[in-house]
UniProtKB/TrEMBL annotation:
Signal peptide: none annotated. This is Glyoxylase, beta-lactamase superfamily II. Residues 70-282 form the Metallo-beta-lactamase domain. CDD domains: metallo-hydrolase-like_MBL-fold. Pfam families: Lactamase_B (PF00753). Belongs to the metallo-beta-lactamase superfamily. Keywords: Hydrolase, Metal-binding, Zinc. InterPro entries: MBL_superfamily_lactonases (IPR051013), Metallo-B-lactamas (IPR001279), RibonucZ/Hydroxyglut_hydro (IPR036866). Gene3D superfamilies: Ribonuclease Z/Hydroxyacylglutathione hydrolase-like.
Length: 305
């Protein structure tokens, strides 16, 4: 269960929101909003359509016929740890076009508004290794290469995930985006700060991972539990509200779409039946709320801001 409420922590340009899960304070770190064509994202749209349903209780879910996606990471302040969940698309990284190609966005500047320096963060955990979740893990080193962004952090990735993306199947998958593993993950390994972990890894007394393979071969979601409250950090378990009504819809970039759909339904059922807070990475900002069972699938109620 969760009785979380948003707080405007102030500072900088506009609010930096946070909420608490017991003793753990959560800061969503916003990178960018962007739009994609529905059929490009959901191959099901080639033969099916969705109704104009109320998947969300806040903001339109499309804009000019396109899907609106938010890109955010999450900073967790536990009683004795500072953990970053995923690392966005990054700045200055060459990509094969798209919203993350050679970007220049004020992502890292937001940490200071939470009273945190880059050197304070002790752990960066990746839910999976897609291009939009790893980029700020490294930055330019001034010599034509890349170095860890958070100098005192250990970087954690599930072993199966690392092995797949550094193998031939991962290399084929990255033809679409460009090789982001080379500039965002391998420099961590070379610097000796990358740890390959099990999919049920426990990060702290309040934070642990749950295996949810499908979207990618080592995909996980993250659970924060403290003082009788619990939140589920979904990563890419779901991207858009239509997947609440249609959990069977996996996006085009899921490695094993059927397994991804099964894991998504299990997560939504868990959130609906437990009352746990669900925190996706791509719902409209700031994204945290509760899942409810509906006549078809589920609905989602955002925390009030």
């Amino acid at each position: 269960m969760s009785n979380a409420r948003w707080t405007d922590t102030g500072g900088g340009e506009g609010p930096l929101w946070s909420f608490r899960v017991g003793e753990v304070e959560v800061f969503p770190i916003r990178e960018v909003d962007y739009f994609v064509e529905p059929a490009e994202f959901f191959p099901q749209m080639e033969t099916e359509s969705w109704t104009d349903g109320a998947f969300y209780t806040r903001e339109p879910f499309t804009h000019d016929g396109r899907i609106l996606l938010n890109q955010e990471a999450h900073l967790l302040r536990t009683p004795d740890r500072l953990i970053l969940v995923d690392a966005g698309g990054g700045n200055g990284k060459p990509r094969n076009g798209g919203v993350f190609d050679r970007a220049d966005r004020p992502f890292l500047e937001q940490f200071a508004r939470a009273g945190v320096s880059l050197g304070d963060i002790d752990t960066v955990v990746f839910t999976h290794l897609h291009v939009d979740h790893v980029g700020f893990a490294t930055g330019a080193d001034g010599r034509g290469g890349w170095e860890p962004t958070f100098p005192n952090a250990r970087y954690l990735v599930v072993r199966e995930e690392f092995d797949w993306w550094t193998g031939p199947e991962g290399a084929r998958a990255m033809r679409r985006t460009g090789d982001y593993i080379a500039d965002s993950i391998l420099p961590l390994r070379d610097a000796g700060v990358l740890d390959l972990i099990e999919a049920d890894h426990v990060l702290s007394p309040q934070v642990h991972l749950v295996p949810a393979f499908g979207h990618t071969p080592g995909n996980v979601y993250l659970v924060v539990e403290s003082v009788g409250q619990r939140a589920l950090f979904a990563g890419d378990m779901l991207h858009h509200g239509v997947q609440l009504e249609r959990p069977e819809w996996s996006i085009r970039y899921c490695v094993v779409p059927g397994d991804s759909a099964d894991q998504r339904r299990r997560l939504l059922e868990r959130a609906a039946d437990s009352g746990d807070l669900l925190v996706p990475a791509h719902f409209p900002f700031p994204a945290a709320g509760h899942v409810h069972r509906a006549e078809r699938g589920f609905t989602y109620t955002f925390l009030d801001v």
